[in-house]
Amino acid sequence: MKRVAILISGGGSNMVALAESMAGDHPARPVLVLSNVPGAGGLARAEAMGIPTEVVDHRDFKSDRQAFESELISKIDEYAPDILALAGFMRILTPLFIDHYAGRMLNIHPSLLPKYRGLDTHARAIAAGDAEAGCSVHEVTAELDGGPILGQARVPVLSGDTPEALAARVLTMEHRLYPAVLRRFAAGDRTLVTLP
Ligand code: GAR
User: Fold this and answer.
1) Quick one: 161 exposed, middle or buried, by C-beta within 10 A (0-12, 13-18, 19+)?
2) Nearest residue CA, atom 3 of ligand 1?
3) Other CB atoms within 10 Å distance of the CB of residue 187
4) DSSP symbol at 44
């Protein structure tokens, strides 16, 4: 069984989708949910599912990213994960952290990468007049939202869409895409997943 640590900052709906998927003949199991935000909604959801949780509050480290990431690494490695899944983890990571988990860290991003790296992806897709939007799961490398793409799911942009309405439509696809990619990745398969 592969051991999966999931990193969150917020509500954790992708974390729940991932954790629920890791059952039966799935080749992985969740061993840790860690948040950089004390009180993040996803922590209570993880606890309710019986998954161990940890908090490393980035504010305790002021602007010292290296100290924050060193503490993250030591907490995470207590759980000996084979795979790290970033699921709405809203901190930019430096090579110290990324190199430590090279080749075993995934992220979900709410755009059709390489379009719209960074923030406000849905507002940017609407402003650009795009006919479709979506989400991507990619391997994490030193380039922000730039690692090899392992899966993508598309949704239409509808006329009159607000960023919130589009985000909700994309999020339902995130909950299908991320588990599908994780299952393949945990089995050693990096072929692209495309949905629907
Ligand atoms: C998701 O939409 C995810 O794609 C996005 O944050 C949301 C987290 O929701 N991630 C990023 O924007 C990463 N830059 P969740 O906490 O309900 O899973």
Assistant:
1) middle
2) 88
3) 12
4) H
The span from the CA of 60 to the CA of 186, in Å, is 33
Report helix, strand or coil for 21.
helix
In ligand 1, the atom with minimum distance to the C-alpha of 11 is: 16
- What is the Cα–Cα distance from 123 to 8, expressed in whole angstroms? 22
pTM above 0.85, yes or no: yes
Is the Cβ atom of 43 under 6 angstroms away from ligand 1? Answer: no
Classify 186 as helix, strand or coil.
Answer: helix
Report the distance separating Cα 149 and Cα 138, nearest Å.
4
100 touches 137 (CB < 8 A): no
The tens digit of pLDDT for each residue in 5-37 reads 999 999 999 999 999 999 999 999 999 999 999
